UniProtKB/TrEMBL annotation:
It holds the Pfam family dDENN. Keywords: Guanine-nucleotide releasing factor, Membrane, Repeat. Residues 962-1070 form the PLAT domain. Residues 798-958, 1144-1293 form the RUN domain. This is DENN domain-containing protein 5B isoform X1.
Amino acid sequence: MSGSGSGAAPGPGSGSSPAACRFAHYFVLCGIDADSGLEPDELAVLYQWLEADRHGKSQDTANTTSGENFDQSPLRRTFKSKVLAHYPQSLEWSPFDQDAVNMLCMPKGLSFRTQADSKEPQFHSFIITREDGSRTYGFVLTFYEEVTSKQICTAMQTLYQMHNAEQYSSVYASSSCSMDSLASSIDEGDATSLLKLQRYNSYDINRDTLYVSKSICLITPLPFMQACKKFLFQLYKAVTSQQPPPLPLESYIHNILYEVPLPPPGRSLKFYGVYEPVICQRPGPNELPLSDYPLREAFELLGLENLVQVFTCVLLEMQILLYSQDYQRLMTVAEGITTLLFPFQWQHVYVPILPASLLHFLDAPVPYLMGLQSKEGTDRSKLELPQEANLCFVDIDNHFIELPEEFPQFPNKVDFIQELSEVLLQFGIPPEGSLHCSESATKLKNMVLKDLVNDKKNGNTPTNNISMYELMKGNETIARLQALADRTGVTVEKIDLSASLNEKEKDFKLQCEEAELRDYQLNVQLREVFASRFIQMFADYEAFVIQTAQDMESWLTNREQMQNFDKASFLSDQPEPYLPFLSRFIETQMFATFIDNKIMSQWEEKDPLLRVFDSRIEKIRLYNVRAPTPTLRTSIYQKCNSLKEAAQSIEQRLMKMDHTAIHPHLLDMKIGQGKYEQGFFPKLQSDVLATGPANNNRWVSRSATAQRRKERLRQHSEHIGLDNDLREKYMQEARSLGKNMRQPKLSDLSPAVIAQTNWKFVEGLLKECRMKTKRMLVEKMGHEAVELGHGEANITGLEENTLIASLCDLLERIWSHGLQVKQGKSALWSHLIQFQDREEKQEHLTDSPVALGPERRKSDSGIMLPTLRVSLIQDMRHIQNMSEIKTDVGRARAWIRLSLEKKLLSQHLKQLLSNQLLTKKLYKRYAFLRCEEEREQFLYHLLSLNAVDYFCFTSVFTTIMIPYRSVIIPIKKLSNAIITSNPWICVSGELGDTGVMQIPKNLLEMTFECQNLGKLTTVQIGHDNSGLLAKWLVDCVMVRNEITGHTYRFPCGRWLGKGIDDGSLERILIGELMASASDEDLGKQCRTPPQQKSPTTTRRLSITSLTGKTSKPSAGQIQEGIGEAVNNIVKHFHKPEKERGSLTVLLCGENGLVAALEQVFHHGFKSARIFHKNVFIWDFVEKAVAYFETTGQILDNEDDVLIQKSSCKTFCHYVNAINTAPRSIGKDGKFQILVCLGTRDHLLPQWIPLLAECPAITRMYEESALLRDHMTVNSLIRILQTIQDFTIVLEGSLIKGVDV
C-alpha cells in the first residue's frame, strides 16, 4: 500500500497492545435515524452553495432553502445519514472518527427507493489517511431496508405532493425527464411515455412500499478487501434469508472484532463467517506489501496504455482526478495505481472518494489523487474544474483519459507495455482493456453467483433473474462476452437455469476460489513487473545518496538546507532516453521521501517498502556479479524474472492454512435479544459487543514474538538520549516537509475551517516557491562555485528544463487558487488576456505616444541600436504570434520562459497584479494572489532568478521565426563613413545561419527575420571591393534578437579592403553576449563569468601593422596562453554534450587556440615591415610550402622519411586549398582557417616540427624565437597532442568554401 503505516508495519503501540493485532477495529452501522426523521443533507446544501459561489452566482439563487433542490424528485434527493451504532466505542490507538466514517460510508447521504426500483446491495470501500500518513480502511455494504416508521413515509408523500405541483407543467412541456435522469433500470425505449414516467417518479403511501439505504461497515488496519467483502455479504444474506442464521449476528460480529487476529506476515488465516469460512493471506517480509484490490479490474477499466499513462502522471505528482459513477471503481483504480508505485509512496492529498460536500477541495493548489463520483447522465464538459493546466482526468466509466500537456514518457514504455500485455494475456485479459464486455461479464458472473448463493433452499432461480439473463442473451455483445467467458473460465453456457443446482454448488465454489487465486496471482505478477522497472532504474541509487549528518537530530534540524541526493551525477550516469522522465521524477516529493527514509534507516528501523526494495537490488547485484555480462545502466529492456516464484508463494499460502481463528460461539446475551425478523438488520445488543473477551492471549502471545520485544528494547536504548516529545516533533516536521495535507478534514465544514485549509495552502505555496527559486539559483550557479567565487555554471540543460517546467506548474497552481470563475485551461494565461484587453482599451482611449525610455544606446561612433521597450503586452503579442503553440497552457509556459530569459518575470507579474480591480474581480478573498504580504515575498523570490542567465526560451522554441536587428559600426576617425562597394553580412548561431544578406548601400542598420538561430556565434562580414572608396575600417557589428532582447557584439577593429591591412575583403567575427540593461541595474550580483569574445582591437592591430605600440607578451606568457587554450578545449569535451556551448569561441575567440598560436608564431618574428610592406605569418607559411614543394628532403631513417613526406604533402595540400578558395580572405584569416582545419584533422602536431625545421625560419625569425627552440617546440607538440582524441566539428562559417 502507499501510506506509511503499511505493509508489515503494525500501527503504533503494536508492541504492547494485543488489540492492535486484531483483524478489524470497528463494526459500524449507518442509516436513517427514526427519531430525527428526514433531514436534508446539510453538507449537500453547503456543496450547492459552494458551487454557486464558484460559478459566481449570488448565494440565494443556489436554492439554499433547506437544501431540497426542487428539480430533483424526492426519491432522488439526499438526506442526512447517521452512524446508528459502532462497536467498540473507541480504541486509543485508532480513535473512531464519526463524521469521516459517516461521510465515507454514505458519501451521498441516505437514498430512498420503492418496490419499483432495483435494490441490489452495493459494496464499496474507503480509506482514511491520518496526519502522520498512516491509514485505516473501511469496507461497506449498503442495502435497502423497508421503512417502518409511519412519519417518514408521510413526510415522503408530502414532499412528493409539493414536488409534483411544481414539476407537472414542465414535464408536459418536454417529454424527456428533467428530474435526475431515469435510472438505467427502465428500458430506454419506453422512457418517454409519460405515464410510466409519473409512475416511476412518484410515491403513494397506499400503493408503494418505501425502502431506505443502510450500511454495515468494517474498519480494518490493513486492506483485506476480499475477506471483508465476503464477511459482509454473508451477514447481509443472514438478514435477508428465510431461515434465521445459526447463531445471533452478535456472535459473528464479536468474533471478527475480538477473536480474529491479523495473519502474521507471510501466513494465511481462516476465520468463519455466518455460512462459510473466509480466507485471507498476508505477504511475507520480503514480498511486495499487501494489496487486495484486483488489478485485473483496474486494467480492464482503463486499458493497459491508459493505465501506464496515468501511472506516469502519478509518478510525476500531477493532479489526478478519477471520475466514475461507482465508488468501488474509484477505489480500485486509486489503490491499484498507488500499489504499483512500489517502492515509492504517494505523498500528497489522497482521497479516492471525495464526498460531494468536499468538492471545493478540487481547488487545492497541490498535487492530489482524488476520486469524484459522477452523477448519472452528467457530461464531462459540464464538470467545472478550477485548474486543468496540470490535471490528468480519468473518466473510468468511459475508458477515456485527458493528459496534461508536455509530459515525458515512462522509460522503455513500448517494451514495458509489451511485457505487461503478455502477463495479462496469460490470464485471458485483453490488454486494450475490456470496458463493455468485462462489465457485462462481471455482471453475469455476479448474477449467477448470487443465484447460487441466495438460493440453496429451493433450487429455483427467482423469475426476474431469468428475464435478466434472457435480456443479456439478446444483447449483441454476447458473442464477445462468450469468448471472454471461455477465456476466463467463467462457464456461462453450462448453467442450466431450470435444473436443480445442488450438485453444481461444489463445482462453483471451487471455481470461485480458483478465480480468486488467479486474481491474487495476476496482482502479484503485474506488481512484480512494475517493481522490476524501478529496480533496474534505481539499482545503484545508493551510491548517490549524500550522507552528511552524524546523528539523527542534526539531520532533522537541518533537513531543509541539505541536498540529500546527488542529482547531477545520478543523471549523468543514466541512459540518454531515460533522462526526460528521470530528471523530473527525482524532483518529486515521493522520491525525496524515499531518499529521506534511506538516510533515516541508519538510525531507526528501515521503512518496510525500502527494506524489500533494497533486498531486491542486492539480489540483482549478486546475479550480475555471476552473469557473463553485467546488465546495469543500459537502456536495453530486461524482463522481470521473479514472476513464477511470486505466484507460487501465494498459491502455497492459500492451499494450506497456517492459522485458524476461534469459531463464532454463543455469547452471554439477555434472553429475548437477538430476535430475528427477515429483511431487517436487528438492533444489536451493545453490551456484549462493547468489549472483547477478558483473555484472548492465545494468539497475542503468538504474534508478539521475540521480534517485538527486541524492537521495544531497541527503541528504548536508542532514544534515551533525545527527549521523546522533542524527537516526535522533529520526526513529524521532517516527515511533513513539503507535504501539505494528506486528506481534508472530513468533519466540520464551517467557513472557518475552509479558510484555515486555504491558509495552509497559501503558506505551502509560498514555501514551495522559496525552495524552487533557491534550487534554480543554486543549480545554475553551482553551489560551491558561488561560494568560492568561481562562477563555473554547471546546471545541465536537462535539469534546467525540469526546474523551469516545475516553476511553470507552480505558477499555474498559484494562479488557479481561489479563482472565482474558470476560463480556459490556463488560469495564468486567462488573467494575462484580461489584463491585455484592459490595457489595450486604455491605449485606444489615451492614444498618446508611448515613452520609449532612454532614446538610444550610443556607441563610440554615434551609430546605435534603438532601445527595446520593456512591455508585458509586447511579450504577450510575441507569444500570440507563434503559430507553433496551439494551447493556452502552452502559451502561458512560453510566456514564462520568455520573461525568465529576459529577466522580467518578477517585474511582469508585479505589473499584472498591480491592476487590483482585475485581481479582485477574478479571485476570492482567500486566494494566494490576494494575500498582500505573501504575494510580495513571492515576487521577491522570483526576482532572485534575475541573477543568472537563462536561455530557456531560445533553446526550446527552435523552429520559430525571429526578427533580428543588426548594426555595423565603423571607426569614423580613420575610415570613410561612406563606401562605394556593396557590403554583405551573414549571421550564424548554434542552430543555423542566415546565409549571405546584402546590406543596402550606406545603410549600416537593417532588420531581418529568420528561423531561430539560437545563441549567436559568428558574423561574416565583407564587401565586393567595387568603386573608388572600397576600404572600410569596422569597429564592430551588433546583432539583437528582437523578441528576447539578447544583444551580441562582434568586435572587429580591422580593415576590409585590398591593399590595406592584410588585404582581406571579408572577416569572421566571434560574438559576445552583452549584459542587458537590467543586469547593470542589478549591480554586479551576477557571478556568471563573461563569455570569451573575439580578440580585441588592440591585440589584432598589434599583431599586424602597428607593432611596437603595445608591450609584447613574454615567452612564458605565450606558453601559458597555449596551455590555457588547449585546456579549455579539453574541458569543453568533458562536459555533457548538451551543455558544451560554442567551440568556435575556444578556437577563434580572444584567448582561443588560434590567437595563442599566433602569439607563438609572432614571437621573434623579424620586423613586420620589410621595405614598407607588411609581412604576415601567412607569408612564412607560403615560403615553407614553396620549399617543401621544390625539395624532397632525404633523412637517414627510412620510416621517418615516409611520415615526413606525407605530412609535407598534406600541409601543402591544405595551404593551397585555402589559397585557391573562392573567398577574399586576408592573410590572418587564412592562418585562422589553417589552424582550425589542422585542429579538426589532428594534424597540428605533425605540421609544427616541419615548420620549425624549414630553412625559411632562419631568415624570418630571430635566434631567440620560440619556434627556433627545440625544447619549446617539443613541449608545444605534446600539448597539442592532448586534443588528438576529440572529434572536433567546425562551424560552417569558419571554413566555408575551403575544400580539403
